Amino acid sequence: MAWVRVCASCCWQLAEAVLPTCTGAGAEERIPLLSSSSASQSPRPSILRGPGTPNAGFSCSPNGLTSSDPLSGGHKEVGLRADSSSFWGPGAARASWPTAVLLADLEQDARQGECSLSRATPAGLAPLKPEASQSSSPGPTSCVRARVVAEAGTRDTGSAGPGLEDRLPCCHGSPETSEPRRGQLLTAPEPPSVMLLNGDCPESLKKEDGAAEPPRENGLDEGEPGDETTGQEVIVIQDTGFSVKILAPGIEPFSLQVSPQEMVQEIHQVLMDREDTCHRTCFSLHLDGNMLDHFSELRSVEGLQEGSVLRVVEEPYTVREARIHVRHVRDLLKSLDPSDAFNGVDCNSLSFLSVFTDGDLGDSGKRKKGLEMDPIDCTPPEYILPGSRERPLCPLQPQNRDWKPLQCLKVLTMSGWNPPPGNRKMHGDLMYLFVITAEDRQVSITASTRGFYLNQSTAYHFNPKPASPRFLSHSLVELLNQISPTFKKNFAVLQKKRVQRHPFERIATPFQVYSWTAPQAEHAMDCVRAEDAYTSRLGYEEHIPGQTRDWNEELQTTRELPRKNLPERLLRERAIFKVHSDFTAAATRGAMAVIDGNVMAINPSEETKMQMFIWNNIFFSLGFDVRDHYKDFGGDVAAYVAPTNDLNGVRTYNAVDVEGLYTLGTVVVDYRGYRVTAQSIIPGILERDQEQSVIYGSIDFGKTVVSHPRYLELLERTSRPLKILRHRVLNDRDEEVELCSSVECKGIIGNDGRHYILDLLRTFPPDLNFLPVSGEELPEECTRAGFPRAHRHKLCCLRQELVDAFVEHRYLLFMKLAALQLMQQKASKVENTTSLENGGLSPSESKPEDPLGPEVGSQEEGGSASGLAKVKELAETIASDDGTADPRSREVIRNACKAVGSISSTAFDIRFNPDIFSPGVRFPESCQDEVRDQKQLLKDAAAFLLSCQIPGLVKDCTDHAVLPMDGATLAEVMRQRGINMRYLGKVLDLVLRSPARDQLDHIYKIGIGELITRSAKHIFKTYLQGVELSGLSAAISHFLNCFLSSYPNPVAHLPADELLSKKRNKRRKNRPPGAADNTAWAVMTPQELWKNICQEAKNYFDFSLECDSVDQAVETYGLQKITLLREISLKTGIQILLKEYSFDSRHKPAFTEEDVLNIFPVVKHVNPKASDAFHFFQSGQAKVQQGFLKEGCELINEALNLFNNVYGAMHVEICACLRLLARLHYIMGDYAEALSNQQKAVLMSERVMGIEHPNTIQEYMHLALYCFASSQLSTALSLLYRARYLMLLVFGEDHPEMALLDNNIGLVLHGVMEYDLSLRFLENALAVSTKYHGPKALKVALSHHLVARVYESKAEFRSALQHEKEGYTIYKTQLGEDHEKTKESSEYLKCLTQQAVALQRTMNEIYRNGSSANIPPLKFTAPSMASVLEQLNVINGILFIPLSQKDLENLKAEVARRHQLQEASKNRDKAEEPMATEPEPAGAPEDVGSQPQAAKDPSSPSLQG
Asked: How many H helices and E strands in the chain?
């Protein structure tokens, strides 16, 4: 729906930019360029499910550069969108908010796993590139022309003539497309007609297209700063690097590549990481004798150029520098030790890829040349084979051989003689260390200003004089090398290993990732760790001089940084991201300290639940209802939910990013059953009373309400993107007060003069399905589903995604109604509007039934498209209010506005009043009409969720457009559609009733598992609150036994001292929050727990579970205990010992208290986004989807640089970027580059998302494919086996994705001639595909073919024939006799028959003549690697389409023919419709969907991939 994005003014702006450069042949292109790009359905970038999709046709830059220059092209795509009034283009506000939708998406896509290139590329892979180069027109237009072709191809495949149809595989997702697994959701460029004629636009489009709601002026008022300059800004990033020579003491000089915008500090970091200089920390760099400043950029250093020599000069130590040095040496000694990752500290996390690839893939490629056919052992462990019932846990974290650390020292610790006495300070002593070497020699070391030396102290006798040998070394490592030969040897080996590891295995992640299992680890002595735990590091971070960090000041100052051009925005986004990740880490540490009882409360005399804490300049409060604040809303339950709602509000306002409006840093931490909210502190708020400081909003839920003009002005600027209505309420004195947010939202001006808003828990409108209001009737869709239901609290609100989808849905309805009326007017020239005045359409009327009816001919359809264009232009004219529109047209728009519930009668503008149905809020008499309309709108939105969003989700799951693999990915998919988790029961009901119930089996299992573990989590939360610290591991293991073990009556082990100290405990009232009766938890039984789980599932999710024990649940719903264990551990933060648990033993409980290792916090926080990088990423994807792979690749590389610039090296979005780059390089034939990028993507996914996250499983599969293509067969197999193991652990065998995985494994095994093994996997894949896609699906035909090939290789021709016949039958019924696939299959059948006959002859010959028979040698085909790779590409949805010259000619002719048609229709309409130059939409929606995918696409060799 690109036309929705581009208004007339944009078109002319573009025209002026392009036309001056068009001459000759190019000039004839003008009109089609404009019309087709404004009307075309631009192939949507897959990752974007939100606003900001670049307009594919709009990549021509005004300066006349062709857009084949990716940078100018990409930037213009970013630039042209902003015309004047808003971020996204003239008043178009498709974006409800600039960045945050953008990236709900990356992550989603990342989870989806695929960048959907698969289907996008075919659509123009080859045809477009040659077209661009051969075009006869002069330079600048040739690329433009190719682009029009691209769009013609992708847009109109439905209606295209046979010529085009043959060549361009259709991109409309259908269950059999080459990659339906993520197909529709990601690419599905459907023709606009489908969207406009079908009341509910396909869910996927709502999400990605963001083709939201133009003329309704919902945009940010400020133009996006810096759009005009984007073209030139890029140069800054393109700065070329140069190399300098480094001279360091004691080693050979070496050269180092640097870039001008690096800081001097970054060279320091590099030197501290290099193997030969890593032991230095206290040095400076000198150029020509002048010391360089740490924090200056290299470009500002005078005289620094290619080949300059930088000298490393050792500096004298201070206490701080000496501490840093010791810490660094300790880090080097621990560099291969994974214990920090298992313990979840310092942003370390696990990665196991190197275990499966034996080192770096790049090198192994060179080492293992040849096909390494000889010694491959392909047999997987028993538990990986199809059909295996065992699900072991230990292989999840295989032992890495580097982890058995080389011991360099036995002990390195601070000496008890610290700090040095005054007389020694005056000799330069800074501190003393105590070391026991590996040879058991005990030495005492002095750190002085000049370096490190041995002194003569012993454990009991202080003697600071130097000992012999009198060796002073500037580095502790050099000193230890002198005194311990073992240290010298092992340290060198350790550093070698450290630098050989992939950097991505060592870099810290931005947010901590916790592991839910860990092996038993030895606890080693570690001075730095001990010091960190017990010194004032609690209070300050080392790198901030002097005092604790003022988090609020940092968070707000970074937001105030300038953002006029790209470098400024990058700097700002990087600062925001860094401060947020530091704040999250500090808040998490503080919240744990609060719950563990290590922080003094600021109101210690109050009871524990009511206490509040301040630590490290962060304010902490507990999630309990203090002072009956939430009495009317559900008490403690509401108080528990409020912080997450508030956090969502903060996310949203941060994303809208209005200058001058500030939110608090907010982190919500769940730990040991408590919810802690951590917030930055508004300057001055602690000195004042809340009543005085609140100058906007209400502190008592709407009794006293105040307002403030400056706040109204600031919030007004957020009201469009957030769809919040400015409204009036009455306060306790019956005065009208105007607000532009909910009443709870408070405005406070801090002592720093900034305008803060807080308590954003009701930013979004209430969810009426869960808020029974007496006297209000809900629409029929809701009552039919059993709503409204009373929920535990009254803070249920709709998700922002739902609000956006609803508004978009209404916008399409609005356009359709207006177009319909205009057509009626045009047809009858009579004012025929009465039909619409009969009030609002309820969403049920706008369901997929097509109001125009399928029988409307194509002519009228062309009319309707141009009618829509007319509506659009009309809406804009009326909105601009220049009086030019005729009254009849105004009437049309007014009726349409009224019908869809718009708040303006001249333009489409839907907004919600968040205070409707708020207890205690009253509205003035004068607003009663408005309130009535708002109530209706809320009811419609509640009905929309049930009638469109949930069925849409189930449909996407049935089509396998989304493929969740575990609870987290299912929750993600629901949230993207705006469905709250409390609807999970409704989703499952719908799945049960679905006609395609079998194809939804995996969704049902995941849903039930999620329902059970969420219910268990709710119970676990209150269970844990009654446990004191000493009983924690016993209590958790008892809970897990009751939840998962088949042992009928587990007994809780009470800690022994518990019994003695009973009396004392009664008196200690003010213990940390767990001050309940400390042994109540011990009496829980499995029967009671499961009864409570079923009850919770009924109460919370309205779903009846039919099980009263874990074994019954496993039996009834086909669940796995190991999967339930993983889900509950991830949700509650439990970490358990890595070992095999016997869940099913009836003789002893599965868990003992030794098995519970730790309990981690579960943290929710804001995720700041990199917006510019994201635009590049989208532009790159758009290019790729049009077939411009090279340009796409360059844009995505640029995006990668920008992402790295903002996020540092580790982030989920960078992971998606790397995956797409790898895929592009693979398609362009650069296997080495593909391998290197995909390896990074796997490492990053393991580190940032988790080692068994569904996304990681996907990444492993891609890497295996690229390894196979690079002839690393054994590596490819071990990666696939790893992916299969993880998949079994996370879900089990019965999942549509398993079919793809098994096909991959089977093909690789076929390639290495392991036929029997290969058959086991391929036949399992066939069974799974048949179940999930139906026996007649093209995927199943392909599966049959793969099985047949293996049987052929085994010379079992009867079985081969049988399978190939099955495949042939499917092709024939689905695609018809003449389709290429059917012919190929029939050829193969003939060939098999001949071979079978030949074999039979030979056998007969042997029977007749015995062994003397004269037998011609039989030809058994061992598969060639090339043919296996080709099949692998097909099943993974990667296509290479060879195009001949003739095809290209046909393509050109087709485009020319279309062009003429457009001209003709345009001239016909010109008289009455100046703007209606949209080409006709591609066929009625019915045509597109009804025929099977491949029928539209005879050429594509890989349809059923």
From this structure: 59, 23
CA–CA separation, 205 and 195 (whole Å):
8
Q: How many CB atoms lie within 10 A of CB 75?
A: 27
Closest among 209, 207, 1481 to 956, alpha carbons compared: 207
Q: Is 1315 helix (H, G, I), strand (E, B) or coil?
A: helix
Give per-residue burial for 159-169: e unless 16+ CB within 10 Å, then b: bbeebbbbbbb
Cβ proximity of 1135 and 517 under 8 Å: yes
Distance of alpha carbon 1428 from alpha carbon 1421, whole angstroms: 12
The answer to whether the CB of 302 falls within 8 A of the CB of 309 is no
- For residue 1228, the tally of other CB atoms under 10 A from its CB is 13
At residue 1156, the 3 state secondary structure works out as strand
d(CA 1213, CA 1177): 10
Which residues are CB-contacts of 1064 (< 8 A; sequence separation ≥ 6)?
A: none
Q: How many residues does the chain have?
A: 1505
Identify the band that residue 626 occupies on the pLDDT scale cut at 50, 70 and 90: confident
End-to-end, the C-alpha distance of the chain in Å comes to: 28
- Side-chain-facing half-sphere of 1200: CA atoms under 13 Å: 18
pTM of the predicted structure, to 2 decimals: 0.78
Which residues have C-beta within 8 Å of that of residue 875, sequence separation ≥ 6?
Answer: 214, 215, 818, 893, 907, 908
What is the three-class DSSP state of 127? helix
How would DSSP label each residue in 431-477? Answer: EEEEEEETT--EEEEEEETTEEEEE---SS----SBPSS---BSSHH
**Rounded distance between C-alpha atoms, residue 254 and residue 243, angstroms:** 10
CA-to-CA distance for 561 and 569, rounded, in angstroms? 8
List the one residue out of 1020, 1029, 1018 whose CA is nearest residue 1072.
Answer: 1029
- Residue 677 in 3-state DSSP? strand
Q: What is the pLDDT of residues 67-87, one digit of tens each?
A: 333 333 333 333 333 333 333
Q: Which residues contact 803 (CB under 8 A, 6 or more apart)?
A: 96, 723, 764, 765, 912, 941, 978
The answer, yes or no, to whether residue 170 has pLDDT greater than 50, is no
pLDDT digits (tens, 9 = 90+) for 401-415: 766 667 888 888 889
Name the DSSP letter for residue 833: -
**Span 139-144, mean pLDDT?**
34
Is residue 125 over pLDDT 50?
no
Q: What is the 3-state secondary structure (H, E, C) of 982-993?
A: HHHHHHHHHHHH
Q: What residue ranges in 632-726 does DSSP mark as E strands? A: 661-662, 666-671, 674-680, 694-696
CA nearest 1019: which of 909, 1099, 916? 1099
Q: How far is CA 30 from the centre of its chain?
A: 40
